[in-house]
């Protein structure tokens, strides 16, 4: 009888798509095992009428899965890497960072208009402080409206609630088969993605050597290095609160390039820089770029946000 591995995931359509994708790849790499998916609701799934910036987003999409793993109810958990906090509970680790999809954001509008062609004062639906800050930095006349829910819900609200546009991650839109709705791929010089965006992560217990070995077979080295650098940057900057941070790591011929930014919520100040190094120094590269951003003024932005308590306690 084949050994069963229990895979935990959120219950949203996108999360289940990602869990099934992981399981199919694990089956191919580990044919001697049977994999069973278990869906769970997280805090983030249960609280949909409050902006993420008000409730905080540290682990609200991952905590329940992590507790189940620590109890031994599941053997591993599948997450969007952008949902995974930079500090994991003791005893857990990222066993695999899967090959990254295009990490950028996309604009979806009712009338097929690009970001530049939207009318003055256009209403943009998004719950992301990172997107709000960067889009306002590009066009200060835009009006940001909090919009939460899964992709289908957001597209329905776009069609029904009088919004002009919404901004989503390309990876999720593609995985859910909504590519035909994309109006514009937003350039990285306008909007850097969230840390880890576009990649699926597999979290496991550190002491589970068997499961670590199984999931290591779907780990993608270049994606792991790029995202490791991004996560190190975020960890250095975060300081215990949610902040509008964008980052993008890319690997070319074993050379790791990292871009990062910190922005004021109103978009009136954006601190942005980049740095390059070897793949083997991903974490140090992220920390060094964070230090550079702090020296360039990001520290003042973060201090101002904390003093004004504009994020969450």
What does this structure look like?
One of its GO terms (cellular component) is cytoplasm. Monomer. One of its GO terms (biological process) is protoporphyrinogen IX biosynthetic process. It is an enzyme of class 2 (transferase). Residues 227-294 form the Porphobilinogen deaminase C-terminal domain. The structure is a single chain. Strand 11 (245-252) and strand 12 (255-263) form a beta hairpin. The chain has helices spanning 13-29, 43-46, 52-55, 63-71, 129-138, 151-160, 170-175, 209-216, 221-238, 282-308, and strands at 3-10, 33-40, 76-80, 92-97, 105-109, 123-125, 143-145, 165-169, 184-185, 200-205, 245-252, 255-263, 270-278. The chain has 3 domains: 1-99 and 199-219, 3-Layer(aba) Sandwich (D-Maltodextrin-Binding Protein, domain 2), CATH 3.40.190; 105-185, D-Maltodextrin-Binding Protein, domain 2, CATH 3.40.190; 221-313, Double Stranded RNA Binding Domain, CATH 3.30.160.40. Helix 9 runs parallel beside helix 10 (282-308). The chain has 313 residues and is an alpha/beta fold. Residues 44-55 have low confidence and may be disordered. It contains 10 helices and 13 strands. The strands form 3 sheets. The chain has a 5-stranded mixed β-sheet, sandwiched between helices. A 5-stranded mixed β-sheet has the order 7-6-8-5-9, sandwiched between helices. It has a 3-stranded antiparallel β-sheet with strand order 11-12-13. The longest helix has 27 residues, at 282-308.
């Amino acid at each position: 009888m084949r050994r069963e591995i229990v895979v935990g995931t959120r219950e949203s359509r996108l999360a289940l798509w990602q869990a099934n994708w992981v399981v199919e790849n694990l089956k191919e790499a580990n044919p001697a095992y049977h994999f069973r998916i278990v869906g769970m609701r997280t805090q983030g799934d249960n609280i949909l009428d409050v902006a993420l910036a008000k409730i905080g987003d540290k682990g609200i999409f991952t905590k329940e899965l992590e507790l189940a793993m620590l109890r031994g109810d599941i053997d591993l958990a599948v997450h969007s890497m952008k949902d995974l906090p930079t500090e994991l509970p003791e005893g857990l680790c990222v066993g695999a960072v899967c090959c990254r999809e295009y990490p950028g954001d996309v604009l979806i509008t009712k009338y097929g208009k690009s970001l530049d062609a939207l009318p003055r004062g256009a209403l943009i639906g998004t719950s992301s402080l990172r997107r709000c800050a960067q889009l306002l930095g590009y066009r200060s006349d835009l009006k940001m409206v909090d919009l939460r829910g899964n992709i289908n819900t957001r597209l329905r609200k776009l069609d029904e609630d009088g919004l002009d546009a919404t901004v989503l991650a390309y990876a999720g839109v593609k995985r859910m088969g909504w590519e035909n709705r994309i109006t514009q791929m937003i350039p990285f010089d306008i909007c850097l993605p969230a840390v880890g965006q576009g990649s699926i992560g597999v979290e496991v217990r550190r002491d589970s050597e068997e499961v670590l070995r199984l999931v290591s077979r779907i780990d993608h080295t270049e994606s792991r290095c790029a995202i490791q650098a991004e996560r190190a940057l975020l960890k250095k900057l975060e300081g215990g609160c949610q902040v509008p941070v964008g980052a993008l790591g890319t690997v070319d011929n074993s050379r790791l390039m990292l871009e990062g930014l910190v922005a004021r919520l109103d978009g009136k100040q954006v601190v942005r820089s980049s740095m390059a190094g070897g793949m083997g120094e991903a974490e140090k590269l992220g920390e060094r770029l964070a230090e550079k951003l702090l020296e360039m003024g990001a520290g003042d932005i973060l201090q101002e946000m904390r003093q004004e308590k504009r994020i969450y306690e």
